[in-house]
Structure formats: structure tokens, C-alpha cells
Amino acid sequence: MTSTAIRQRLITYLSDAGDNKIKAIYTLLENEIENEKSFSLTKEHIEILDKERALHLSGNTKSYSKQDSFDIIKGIKRL
Questions:
Q1: Which of 45, 78, 79, 46 is nearest to 62 (CA)?
Q2: What is the distance between the alpha carbons of residues 42 and 33, in angstroms, rounded to a whole number?
Q3: Do 72 and 64 contact (CB within 8 A), yes or no?
């Protein structure tokens, strides 16, 4: 069975399931659901961000607007 078919069956099941079954299923998946919501940076990532921020604030690096960033990503504009 494909992932799409499984999702569809689960959606159908969950839409008709009683409150007790919904709570039981949630309890089984709660840790996984909560872990997806959390995000943490490693010490190394924080150090990189701090270094880049300091360079930016001191004027040693160039900044780009949101639109400029999108245009660069799309290849419309060059760095």
C-alpha cells in the first residue's frame, strides 16, 4: 500500500473515530508530534550565526532585501 493510500485511509478513519480512539492515537504519537515542533541549533550553528551577525552589524558584509534574495535564488539577479 502506498503512503498516499495509507494517509487517505487514516484521514477517513480519524474523521469518523470517537474521542477515546482519537485521544489514544494521539497519546501513541504525542512524542513524535511534539519533537517535530521543536527546533534547536547546535553550539556550532549558534557560533556561526553570531559571527555572521557581527560581520553584518559592523558593515563588513552586504545585506539583501527579501525580494533581492528571492531574485538571486531564482537566478534573476546576481550577487
A1: 79
A2: 21
A3: yes
Contacts of 22 (CB under 8 A, 6+ apart): 14
**Spatial distance between the Cα atoms of 23 and 21, rounded to a whole number of angstroms:** 5
In one-letter notation, the amino acid at residue 59 is G
Q: How far is CA 44 from the centre of its chain?
A: 20
Please give the pLDDT value at position 50: 95
Instruction: Name the pTM for this structure.
Output: 0.41
Rounded average pLDDT over 30-55? 87
Predicted pLDDT at 68 = 92
